[in-house]
């Protein structure tokens, strides 16, 4: 099945710094790719997604581009804020098609942004 | 408001005492799933359901049961809880199934249930 490898961190940045969290995947075909975010004490919520190669997902100043050449989906933000402190998960379907749908997640990257 | 709800949010119990964690969604989603989250292990899928009366094992199903008798509800049952089931549990749902968009769907997560088994 498909798999994802994510930079584990933790990552600590100062406010307004540039953020990159690396995510690479192995997959059959071109499955959709997702970034989820988990704020302290909450469940996961979708941050952004890309459904085909070369798509760029974006939301709340975060961006990630689906790059099939490098099998990557790195998360970036130009200027982080304290409110971005959270755990970030890269994810994709375990199998590319078929009926036994499962979503597989990276281990998560804890981001702490200091004022 | 579209949401996934879980109850209880926190539970402390003892080994062997049967418990049920409820999950309900109000978005008419066909697909529902349970995950557990543990430090250093990330999120692991326990069970999932493609539709009413259709369930299947995830990565770590041992010690858990599920049922899907109604579209909106997907309870997680621990018949005889053990300390190694102490974890943070999340229910999730997505449109899925016959919509034909399952592989691009967003999963919506509940707020989590923190379970401690003594």
Descriptive overview:
The complex is a heterodimer of chains A (115) and B (118). Chain A is globular and about 40 Å long. In chain A, the strands form 3 sheets. In chain A, strands 2, 5, 6, 10, 11 and 12 form a 6-stranded mixed β-sheet that branches. The mean pLDDT of chain A is 91. Chain A contains no helices and 12 strands. Chain A has 115 residues and is mainly β. Chain B has 118 residues and is an all-beta fold. Chain B contains no helices and 11 strands. In chain B, strands 2, 4, 5, 6, 9, 10 and 11 form a 7-stranded mixed β-sheet that branches. In chain B, strands 1-3-8-7 form a 4-stranded antiparallel β-sheet, with no helix packed on it. Chain B starts with a strand and ends with a strand. Chain A binds chain B through residues 31-32, 34, 36, 42-46, 49, 51, 89, 93, 96-97, 99-108, and chain B through 4, 31, 33, 40-43, 45, 48, 50, 56, 58-59, 90, 92, 96, 102-104, 106-112.
Rg of chain A from C-alpha positions? Answer: 14 Å
Q: Helices and strands of chain B, in N-to-C order? A: EEEEEEEEEEE
Molecular shape of chain A: globular
Structural class of chain B: mainly beta
Show the largest interface: A-B, 25 and 26 residues
What's the end-to-end separation of chain A, in Å? 41 Å
């Amino acid at each position: 099945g498909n798999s994802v490898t994510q930079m584990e961190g933790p990552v600590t940045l100062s406010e307004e710094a540039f953020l990159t969290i690396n995510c690479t995947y192995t997959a059959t075909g071109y499955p959709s790719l997702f970034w989820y975010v988990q704020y302290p004490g909450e469940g996961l919520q979708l941050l952004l997604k890309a459904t085909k190669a070369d798509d760029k997902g974006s939301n709340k100043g975060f961006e990630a581009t689906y790059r099939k050449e490098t099998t990557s989906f790195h998360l970036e933000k130009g200027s982080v804020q304290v409110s971005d402190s959270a755990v970030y998960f890269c994810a994709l379907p375990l199998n590319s098609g078929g009926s036994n749908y499962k979503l597989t997640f990276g281990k998560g990257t804890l981001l702490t942004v200091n004022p | 408001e579209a949401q996934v709800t879980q109850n209880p949010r926190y539970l402390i119990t003892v080994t062997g005492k049967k418990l049920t964690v409820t999950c309900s969604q109000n978005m008419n989603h066909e697909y529902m799933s349970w995950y557990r989250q543990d430090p250093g292990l990330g999120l692991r899928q326990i069970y999932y359901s493609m539709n009413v009366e259709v369930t299947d094992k995830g990565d770590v199903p041992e010690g858990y049961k599920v049922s899907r008798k109604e579209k909106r509800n997907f309870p997680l049952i621990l018949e005889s809880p053990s300390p190694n089931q102490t974890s943070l549990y999340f229910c999730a749902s997505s449109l899925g199934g016959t919509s034909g968009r399952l592989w691009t769907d967003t999963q919506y997560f509940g707020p989590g249930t923190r379970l401690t088994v003594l």
